[in-house]
Design brief:
80% helix, 0% strand, globular, mainly alpha
């Protein structure tokens, strides 16, 4: 057990060392979440001013909260997914993947280290945006209370299983699949219903949305912000779906990793 933890820490430290003396990497962590928050915050302020001018003051504050809450929570899913995928791609770009597995490191330990790195990257990227949202727009994400932790954990878990699926495709198809690391989760955004209820979608697309944990998380977020009610049913569905999709992604990763090792792709991937 101790040896396993040391191997996990060794890989985690290797990635942390990349950020220690690289300020561009550190800036990049918070750049996109902060930029997204500022853009959507200004958009929300514009709509708030227009709706307030027409006398609809009873609704625009809730609309602004839902918009900013959706932006910040969605960044948790994005950053967690990118945290795993980019950390794995760093091993490919540095041609270090084969060297890593010459050591006694096991695939499960690699995934654990990538997940730990994802948590650190997500915190470093999203927390500055959350604080700026409070400073610039007086929106306090933490006002949702402890339920925010369950929302964040479910979105982070979704980012993880999406990233495992992406890594599996990279192991199978090589560098040609690297672009998926930046695009897959964006493709799921319309069905995650970040800014609107599931009922807004056309009826044939609603089952697809409800198969995603993120749609249930954002339905729960709107229930808390608009009505002060915790939608435990949606949280239960989000947790169950995450467990199901995570198991499927883990099986896919294990299968593709074994196949890549047999083909010798761990040494040649990225070339």
């Amino acid at each position: 057990m101790r040896a396993s933890l040391r191997r996990i820490w060794g890989l985690l430290f290797r990635h942390l060392a990349l950020y220690r003396r690289s300020w561009p990497r550190l800036v990049e962590l918070a750049y996109w979440p902060t930029l997204q928050m500022v853009i959507w915050g200004l958009t929300a302020r514009f709509f708030a001013a227009r709706l307030g001018a027409t006398g609809a003051t009873g609704h625009w504050l809730a609309a602004v909260s839902v918009l900013l809450g959706g932006v910040l929570l969605w960044e948790i899913a994005l950053r967690s997914q990118m945290g795993v995928a980019i950390s794995f791609l760093e091993e490919i770009w540095s041609r270090n993947l084969g060297h890593v597995f010459v050591s006694p490191l096991r695939p499960a330990e690699l995934v654990t280290a990538l997940f730990a790195m994802s948590i650190l990257r997500t915190c470093a990227g999203v927390l500055p945006a959350v604080l700026l949202a409070w400073a610039l727009y007086a929106f306090n994400l933490f006002a949702m209370g402890p339920i925010l932790i369950l929302f964040a954990v479910n979105l982070m878990a979704m980012g993880w299983w999406v990233s495992l699926a992406v890594v599996s495709l990279i192991l199978r198809h090589g560098a040609g699949a690297e672009a998926l690391a930046w695009s897959v989760l964006f493709g799921l955004a319309p069905f995650s219903c970040v800014f609107y209820p599931v009922a807004t979608l056309p009826a044939p697309l609603r089952p697809l949305a409800l198969a995603l944990p993120s749609a249930h998380v954002f339905e729960g977020m709107r229930a808390v912000l608009n009505h002060g009610v915790i939608a435990w049913g949606h949280l239960g569905w989000a947790t169950g779906l995450n467990a199901l999709w995570m198991a499927a992604a883990a099986l896919l990763f294990a299968r593709q990793f074994r196949a890549a090792r047999v083909r010798g792709a761990l040494l040649t991937i990225g070339e």
